[in-house]
Amino acid sequence: MEQKIYGLPEGMNDKKTSFCPGCSHMAAYRTIVESLNELNERDNAVIVRPIGCSLNADYSFDIHAIQSMHGRASAVATGVARMHPEKTVLAYQGDGDAHSIGIAECLYAANRGEKMTCIVINNSVYGMTGGQMSGTTLLGQRTTTGIREFDNQGAPIHVAEMIAQLEAPGYVARAALYTPKDIMQAKKFMVKALRCQKELGKYSYIELLSFCPTNWGVKPVDCIKYAQENVLPVYPVGELKTCF
Ligand code: SF4
């Protein structure tokens, strides 16, 4: 029997998606939609999505969307932002996408101070493409391409901290989508990121720590404990740079 989802914000519907059970993408999207609604910017927003699990949400959200190649969302978003400076432009990327295959596009969009918001779903692994190791994979984490070791692959990369020390970005933050309290904080950061872009014409970056039970090999019910014990010590949450 189809289950009805109540209390969805305007701009979100209850059409079925193919996200795995326990995935954080829906919480991320809800955070984005609610923040855009609060700022009355949803109709004016354009979201650029590359290859990745976020595509599973295609029919669930009423936001103008553009598909880019893998890793190139920040580059495509740059083009949209320059051609349509009146738009609220979002690049919605995964860590495999923004912190590995597309790290050049991600960092240089930040360094140029493009008028856009880059949102990175960091679940420390390539999701849709099969659970391969990404730049943010934790030391000792098992992936389909091996176990990360410092001597072989180096430490997990901290892109939020790298972007925060650049001159141009206006707002940089990392939040988690683990508990309801975390999600409320993520929403607060998201609104600030979008306001920084819209009101001050600056580049914003927000990283959202997320679950990927399928590729972690962790049951959805155990993900909060796993993430709190393993991810948060490596990736602390908070604002790294703010324009307000
Ligand atoms: S593979 Fe991971 S990120 Fe992708 S839908 Fe499944 S749980 Fe979510």
Strand order of the largest sheet: 2-1-3-4-8-7-9
Estimate percent helicity.
25-40%
CATH class descriptor: Alpha Beta
Structural class: alpha/beta
* CATH fold description: Rossmann fold
Mean pLDDT: 94
H/E series: HEEHEHHEEEHHEHEHHE
Q: How many domains, as an integer?
A: 1
What would you call the shape?
globular
Number of helices: 9
Using only C-alpha atoms, the radius of gyration works out to 17 Å
Please report which band the strand proportion falls in: under 5%, 5-15%, 15-25%, 25-35%, 35-45% or over 45%.
15-25%
Question: What does this molecule look like?
Answer:
The protein is of the alpha/beta class and 244 residues long. The protein has a single domain, classed as Rossmann fold, CATH 3.40.50. It is built from nine helices and nine strands. It has helices at 25-38, 73-83, 95-101, 103-112, 150-153, 159-164, 180-200, 213-216, 223-230; strands spanning 45-49, 64-67, 88-94, 117-122, 142-143, 146-147, 171-176, 204-209, 238-241. The strands form two sheets. It has a seven-stranded mixed sheet, sandwiched between helices. Strands 5-6 form a two-stranded antiparallel sheet. Helix 3 crosses helix 4. The longest helix is centred in the C-terminal third of the chain and has 21 residues, at 180-200. The mean pLDDT is 94. It binds iron/sulfur cluster (SF4). Iron/sulfur cluster binds at residues 19-20, 23, 25, 53, 56, 123, 127-128, 212-215. Iron/sulfur cluster binds next to helix 8.
